[in-house]
């Protein structure tokens, strides 16, 4: 959406806070006002030196810089890329700890290779989370702090649960975690991009499927059940979903910066008031939303204080920031996994149908791209970046397209081993017939969000590449065909996806599945398919949840393979599951994604007869549902390519 730009001022840059754990004492810090006059980019030496000077002002030995924003968002705006500013690391997940004499960055296996290439080893130590011998953040702090040391952080950028956990760990050894009154990165960041506050898009019932008033009422029922007077909603996708509004404040994520307090009679929306214009107010009125009061985004803490002084009991999410959590006295606070997230995760009939339609159109775009790639690769002019741009163009031609759902992971050869690789001018590789090309991409449509990964070899793959791909495929097919009881844990599917790899001692370092929004975030939780059964987002599966199914394998310095579809949880038929788990209810998956899986990379001898039959049935669906749309789009070449790509596979002789 292209609009005139408005700007929002971040809370943590303006308010002086006194929150749980105390606030550091020290001289008044107005350096950001002075530094703002000079917007010359600073070197890493200067950035870290200035932060360390501020740390001395606050008498802290360590300062924590997370990757999230004040709403615990995974994907963040340019204004909130503090971790990138201080480290040069561009991944979506990581935590930096700066001490007076050293600094380290922790990130998970998706980003080990990427971070290794982005960090300056003269200033930063990379901590590869999950690898043997790598200390955790807790262990590193405990090993390096001096007796009685203070550790500082911005209370808006750390979840209250993590603040409490880490604070307890440090306290056991005589250290103290404190919430600083100012964000130290913000103070030294002299060329920081402004925060956007663009106009909003109203989402009609034809796409949302449920009035905002009905969603709000469902939340109020939850409040009643738990004896709460109001709930503070801080997750941006939850606010957008509740109000049937969409924004563009974060690239590829149709959300807008806001907080929402829902009581039994009122709604207080904290955002840039200018964008709640006549169109938005008319939309909310038509959605039955009454008692709405719009306040400035920066007034969320005073707004909470009003509720507190009124004697109200307030519900907050386990993911809410320490700043919000600490603003509520313990005896007036109720904390639990977000009830809005659980409501949003279960798509209504209109949303579910829209997701299916969006995947047909998206499938046509990806098929047209793969056909184009096959036709164009020998010209020598196709690169990771130009390929991603071409795929974007094919998506742009589809009905109801709004934007991409994330920057495409267009990765050839060794770049494919970087799980969340993002091509740049510096890393852009030509795509040739001499390696595996991994393309992970998605689109935002008015009726749904997509996320699909295919790995292809345009030449002759090696035996090892075929084996790796086929074992990933076996796990992928096992998840897609699974039958399971209602509320089955996501860990079940994580094991199914890995077994064929584990059989020969291979594995991958990321989760197997994440939830996905309906014209919302490409990652949403619940559900999640992860190895950690204690993960808060592992809420158990119910009908009409949507998840990715994405096992992979990555050979560092050589190649990566991943296959990813979006699956929908549906009821299994009684004929298929006659015993129905003793009345508990039987579920299975319907695959929404409609893009063929390359047969050239498959080692047929590794597939069972049942797996071949499953793959052939899927390919028939792809041709039947996507083929007619290709002809409508006047692309007979892509239709012919799809016909060949979905030909029935037979067992190896």
Brief summary of the model shown:
The protein is an alpha+beta fold and 653 residues long. It is built from 20 helices and 30 strands. Strand 12 (259-263) and strand 13 form a beta hairpin.
The CATH architecture classification of the largest domain is Alpha-Beta Complex
Strand order, sheet with most strands: 5-4-3-2-6-7
Strand portion: 15-25%
Annotation, overall tally of beta strands: 30
The class by helix and strand makeup works out as alpha+beta
What name is given to the CATH topology of the largest domain?
Creatine Amidinohydrolase
The biggest beta sheet is recorded as: 6 strands, mixed
Helix content: 25-40%
In the CATH scheme, the class of the largest domain would be: Alpha Beta
Straight-line N-to-C gap: 54 Å
In total, the number of domains comes to 3
Name the CATH superfamily classification of the largest domain: Creatinase/methionine aminopeptidase superfamily
The overall pLDDT, averaged over residues, is: 93
Helix count, DSSP H or I runs of 4 or more residues: 20
Q: Please mark out the parts with pLDDT under 50 across 5 or more consecutive residues, or reply none.
A: 1-35
Family: Belongs to the peptidase M24B family.
GO molecular function, one term: metal ion binding
Keywords: Hydrolase, Metal-binding
Protein name: Aminopeptidase P N-terminal domain-containing protein
